[in-house]
Amino acid sequence: MSVPDLGIDLPIVSGDLLPPPSYPLCDVAAYITRFEQPYEPGVTYLSAHAQAGMFLPLLEASLRNDGDSLLGLPVDVFTDDGRRFGYRIERVIRHATDYAIISELPPAERSLILQTSEGPYGTTEKLQVLATPVDEGVVPVAEAAPQARPRDCRPQALRDDDGQDGALPMPSPTTSPIIVSAPTPPIVPVAIPSPGGEAPAPSGLGTAHVASRVVVERLGIDLPVISGDLQPPPNYPFCDVAAYETFLAQPDEPGTTYISAHAQEAMFLPILEASERRDGRDMLGMQVDVYTTDALRYRYEIWQVRRHILDRAIATEGLGPDEHRLVLQTSEGPYGTTEKVAVAARLVGIQVADPGTATPEARPRDCRPPGAQGAERP
Questions:
Q1: Of 305, 250, 261, 309, whose CA–CA distance to 279 is shortest?
Q2: Which structural domains are found in the chain, ordered by start?
Q3: 303-328 pLDDT tens trace
Q4: Fewer CB within 10 Å, N side or C side of the chain?
């Protein structure tokens, strides 16, 4: 990708390559895999550090008159099949702390967001630059897909904590991904009941209500659910709650609801422990209940367990256009562990729930390891 007027010209890699704890690589930009590619309707989301040779010129320009000089600048994004997608910057958002801008964009139209930090490691506020498409063309593949040389530039405190000494973490040959599946439950027609007991309304109408509680009764899991955007830097999840990914679907929307929590006592540790017995086969067929803020209970049935995974492909692989999927994810080890375990479940029923039952009080606890807590202070 390039912004010629600012001297930005970077290879792009998958955001799933980030070393723990999700600290971006240097000398490249990264696309967030949960969003679209430039040739697809929707948002293409690229991020890079605010450092020299990366997105620092964006940050510097944003500090002058709130980024007025950025408006109208051309941006080119290239794909590995030799295509160039041209955009023009039309909006600058400073001090952003969430992904709210995405909800304002027409889902059927293409758009591009460039994001970088507004300060050193641990800074919560981000700079977001919105660009809209203007043209596209064909270029030589060698020009479109330059060799990427991602560099692990985590602060020393994070490297010390995981013992990697700057090397990119690689999966062990003994921990290749393991997938255990049962026959997938059939997709059921989804009608969202009214919390007041009125006639059901079809899914997809109105504003989505967010997940507020997750229960896996057979594993003893019962947790409040909060927004994943509330994580303290460096994106280390809170304890005593689960968190949903804000850029994926909510239970009343087609797509995947993605919920994660630590593999610790009173959180998602039972999922990890069950996955270590017979590769998690005993979890197949288990029911999972997800409650939402509008007092509905969505019941799912687990049909797949994936161990030692390094990405979130479970969220999209084989996903039907009308499917309502749930993924629960947790880590397979202590802070800095790359491999994750995840279970996929498909919606089998919806019922009205008591509002108090559906929305328990969440008390998120900052449980970052000492190394990460200390590193956030510039």
A1: 305
A2: 2-162 (2.40.260.10), 173-375 (2.40.260.10)
A3: 999 999 888 889 888 888 889 999 99
A4: C
